[in-house]
Design a protein that fits this description.
It contains 22 helices and 23 strands. α15 runs antiparallel to α17 and α18 packs across α19.
Length: about 800
């Protein structure tokens, strides 16, 4: 019997290692899920190798929110937008489930997060149990009102799960209910700590031996789904087999039904709990039966009392011999049981150490992989840094080459500027002329051989061409007189004009004396005559507003005052008229064609012939031929009257005098000037009428009388203009006329203009007023949105 027992015990060490169990946890992401995870960790981690899967079901994305707070169907957006939104939802859910994964990391337990996109939670969980072969599923108990008769979500999940999966329903950290798998149909549970009990009954060993053995065997077969039992449980099963063998050998007469003193309760309680508790319970029940019979051996008086007095002496001796034999075997079995118990404890300790070592090895492996990934990332960063450094080095080399080239260009420009500075110093010292002397070849090249495309205009004394000298735009005037260059007086006047510098006098850049050519600075906006009378070839330019005309009057007066008071001798222009007043950027005016000016004494000088335009010539100069500064004052008065009325100079003085006398000046005002201020305009008209008096002695002096009045009117106009521009939004101002648009239209360049201004512009030009690029078309589209805003602002 001892040999058979030893062979059975030795066979216990040859069992294969247990496989892992897949446990699924259905979580919703709430705080309730932490309770479920904590219960599952305490329940299943001590059992051995367990693989956890977190199942989270989120609804299918069917709508996408908009910035306005609304929703649109996902089928109505682009695929890339829908994919980006789904990815964002998935990342949010992953971040929410991250702190659940940390609970498993703290226990050093592997867990896999499975996100399921489905509107049916029950079907999704059931399908993934089948897909991932989940042996056990842990879910939270669903709350339900006492008045509700509908099934809860947890009950629906339990019913729909595959039959091979055991479903645990947890409520408030405890097991609420359980749906066993097909292989666990004979097991009953009580809460978390309830034990699975054997169905056998051993109240009377002598009468129920075969029944107990059959029931225990059935119970042991019913726990096959728990994989292979641990080593201590295998030893208990071996002891149970020994117990059954002993029962077969022992006679029924020596077993008392009331003897149940020896138990394995204290021994079985020292072993691990969990799913293996079934094995301990089976072993303990079997051992109860065995110890009951053993206890009868220790109480011979009880056996003898139960024996009939009529039993023969020989039979009594045989019984005593058997009893002694059984006592020896019992002591031997007890020793073997103690040894098996110690080996089971050692085996359990070694198993725990192996599991701990396995976890450490897995942790080290993860750290090694993590360090490997870090090394790869570091290598990629170093490679990227190398590429960036290489590009930077190439860029530095290019910059160095560019800087060297720029340095060479700068040296060339510096040498040129030094030469120009020396020329300027020489000019200031009187060693050279104050203007540049151009060669005839330079003049021809700058004007493209006097091409008609470059012709700006033609006057009584010459033709003006647009030219380019060293990337600088200038105006070249070719005088009609062929012998003017040989005239000493022309040379003298050129020298004088080249020395004149005033903000409102056209600058003489240079000349070609041999061919009677004068080079002036170029004025972008043409002459005052073009803007006032809207000539056919200049209709694209917007009209001048009244505040610009007030300013121009003051600018012309300041330039004349400068000429008249020049030292050592004053200068008379002799041909002041709107055609000789040129406008630059922002309509800044400058007096041009000063080449016919005459140097006079402080009073006057007599000339041989009349020079100038008839309507602007001083009447006294026509009668006497004497030139004086008052001649320019008369012409200035005519120019101012034209600024106010926008009418030709013939009989204009008489018309304005009559209108002022009859208080009907507003009828003569130029409508293109805008809303004229009546009082200030009348003051300007009166000072202009004084300048056009027939006798010189009745005309005001330019510096002392005219300029103060014009300066006051100019300041008033500037303030009014600033208020108008500040009060009106920038988008309401037309880029051409610089006034608030009354009929805004969008042109082909995409900019908005006033309809009247842009229509006149595109009649003469095909380019954009803003970008100066070719217009793709000349269609105008009304900008009703801007018009509505302008009308609201005006109201």
């Amino acid at each position: 019997m001892g040999e058979k027992f030893n062979s059975k015990v030795e066979g216990l060490y040859e069992l294969p290692p247990p496989p892992y169990t897949v446990v699924g946890l259905a979580v919703s992401g709430s705080e309730k899920s932490k309770t479920i995870i904590k219960w599952a960790l305490e329940k299943f981690v001590p059992e051995g190798v367990v693989h956890f899967k977190l199942l989270h079901v989120r609804p299918v994305v069917s709508r996408i929110p908009t910035p306005m707070g609304n929703y649109i169907q996902i089928s109505q957006v682009r695929d890339d937008v829908a994919a980006a939104f789904r990815k964002e939802i998935q990342s949010q859910v992953s971040e929410k489930l991250l702190h659940f994964k940390k609970m498993f990391d703290q226990k050093r337990v592997h867990v896999e997060i499975v996100q399921i996109e489905n509107n049916d939670v029950v079907t999704a969980i059931s399908a993934n149990i089948q897909k991932h072969r989940i042996d056990r599923l842990v879910i939270g108990a669903s709350s339900r009102s006492i008045f509700s008769r509908t099934r809860t979500l947890s009950s629906k999940i339990s019913e729909s799960c595959p039959s091979f999966c055991t479903v645990y329903v947890v409520s408030k950290g405890k097991l609420s209910s359980l749906r066993p798998s097909d292989s666990e149909g004979n097991i009953s549970f009580r809460d978390d700590s309830s034990e699975t009990t054997c169905s056998s009954s051993d109240n009377n060993f002598s009468s129920q031996t075969s029944s107990s053995r059959t029931d225990c065997t059935t119970d042991q077969d019913s726990f096959a789904h728990f994989r292979t039992a641990s080593m201590p449980l295998q030893r208990f099963q071996a002891l149970s087999n020994i117990n059954q063998t002993l029962h077969k050998k022992m006679p029924s007469t020596v077993i008392a039904p009331h003897s149940r003193n020896l138990t394995l309760d204290n021994v079985a309680d020292n072993f691990p709990s969990g799913s293996d508790v079934n094995y301990y319970t089976t072993a303990k029940n079997n051992f109860h039966s065995f110890t009951s019979s053993s206890a009868d051996d220790n109480n011979p008086s009880s056996d003898q009392a139960s024996t009939s007095d009529n039993t023969p002496t020989k039979n009594q001796a045989d019984v005593n011999f058997e009893l002694e034999k059984m006592r020896v075997e019992l002591r031997h079995i007890r020793g073997m049981y103690a040894m098996a118990q110690g080996e089971a404890i050692d085996t359990s300790r070694k198993l725990s150490e192996l599991q701990k070592r396995r976890l450490e090895e897995e942790t080290n492996l993860r750290q090694i992989r993590f360090k490997e990934e870090e090394a790869k990332e570091l290598a990629d960063k170093e490679k990227t840094r190398y590429e960036d450094a290489k590009k930077e080095a190439e860029f530095v080399n290019e910059c160095a080459e560019r800087e060297a080239e720029e340095r060479r260009d700068a040296e060339i420009w510096a040498a040129r500027e030094t030469k120009e500075k020396e020329d300027l110093e020489n000019a200031l010292n009187g060693s050279s002329s104050h203007y540049r002397k151009f060669t005839w070849e330079e003049i021809v090249d700058a004007t493209s051989s006097f091409s008609d495309d470059r012709k700006i205009g033609m006057g009584a004394y010459g033709t003006v061409y647009r030219s380019t000298f060293h990337h600088t735009t200038a105006a070249v005037k070719i005088l009609h007189s062929k012998d003017a260059g040989r005239n000493k007086q022309f040379q003298q006047e050129v020298d004088i004009l080249s020395k004149i510098r005033h903000p409102h006098l056209l600058i003489l850049i240079g000349a070609c004396i041999d061919h009677s050519c004068l080079v002036y600075e170029f004025m972008e906006n043409g002459s005052l005559e073009d803007r006032l009378f809207r000539k056919t070839n200049k209709k694209n330019t917007p009209p001048l507003l009244w505040f610009d005309r007030f300013r121009i009057a003051w600018e012309v007066a300041s330039a004349l005052s400068f000429l008249h008071n020049a030292e050592p001798k004053g200068i008379v222009h002799r041909d002041l008229k709107p055609a000789n007043i040129l406008l630059g950027i922002n309509n800044v005016s400058k007096i041009g064609d000063v080449g016919l000016s005459t140097v006079v004494n402080k009073d006057s000088i007599s000339v041989s012939g009349l020079v100038g335009t008839l309507s602007y010539i001083d009447p006294e100069y026509q009668r006497t031929g004497v030139v004086a500064p008052e001649s320019d004052v008369y012409a200035f008065g005519m120019v101012v009257l034209q600024l106010i009325t926008g009418k030709p100079a013939i009989a204009l003085t008489h018309k304005v005098e009559t209108a002022v006398a009859n208080d009907r000046l507003t009828e003569l005002l130029d409508k293109n000037g805008g809303d004229w201020p009546i009082e200030e305009t009348k003051s300007l008209a009166l000072i202009a009428l004084k300048c056009t008096e027939l006798r010189r002695t009745d005309r005001p002096e330019m510096k002392g009388e005219v300029l103060p009045v014009l300066e006051r009117l100019k300041d008033f106009a500037e303030k009014t203009r600033n208020v108008a521009l500040v009060s009106a939004p920038k988008q309401f101002i037309c880029p051409i006329s610089n006034v608030v648009m009354s009929d805004p239209c969008v042109a082909g360049d995409g900019y908005t203009y006033d309809r009247g201004a842009i229509e006149e512009w595109i009649k003469a030009k095909d380019t954009s007023p803003v970008t100066d690029l070719q217009l793709p078309h000349k269609y105008l589209i009304p900008n009703y949105t801007l018009l509505s805003a302008i009308m609201e602002w005006n109201s």
